[in-house]
Amino acid sequence: MSHRLYLILALLGTAACSSENSKQSVNRDTLTQRQKDSILANSRIPNARAVGRAMTAADSASARALRADSVARDTTEL
């Protein structure tokens, strides 16, 4: 009888822990990679500002590529 009780308690404990972990992983995964990087860039971790500078450089490169693509599209329509 006591073995069954321990088994049931162990299963209930495992079930309770697993449902709690799944809730945490869902909440953690709701942030996009950019949001995570932004949080990191604004932290006080050493060299974290480099993440912010890399994000700024990536944004600049993306905007430059978008402008170049727009110019290329405008010249082919003529």
What do these coordinates show?
By secondary structure, the protein is an all-alpha fold. 83% of the residues lie in helices and 0% in strands. The protein has 3 helices and no strands. Helix 2 packs across helix 3 (49-77). The radius of gyration is 25 Å and the shape is elongated. The protein starts with a helix and ends with a helix. The model has no long low-confidence stretch (mean pLDDT 80).
Short description:
This protein is mainly alpha-helical and 78 residues long. It is 83% helix and 0% strand.
Descriptors for this entry?
mainly alpha, 3 helices
Q: Note the overall shape.
A: elongated
Percent of sequence in beta strands? under 5%
Determine the structural class based on helices, strands and strand pairing.
mainly alpha
From N to C, what is the helix and strand string?
Answer: HHH
State the end-to-end CA separation.
86 Å
What is the count of helical runs? 3
Q: What's the alpha carbon Rg, rounded to whole Å? A: 25 Å
As residue ranges, the low-confidence spans are none
Query: What's the mean pLDDT score?
Result: 80
Largest sheet: none
The tally of strands reads: 0
Share of helical residues: over 70%
Q: How is this fold's topology laid out?
A:
Blueprint: H1 2-28, H2 33-41, H3 49-77
Helix pairs in contact: 2-3
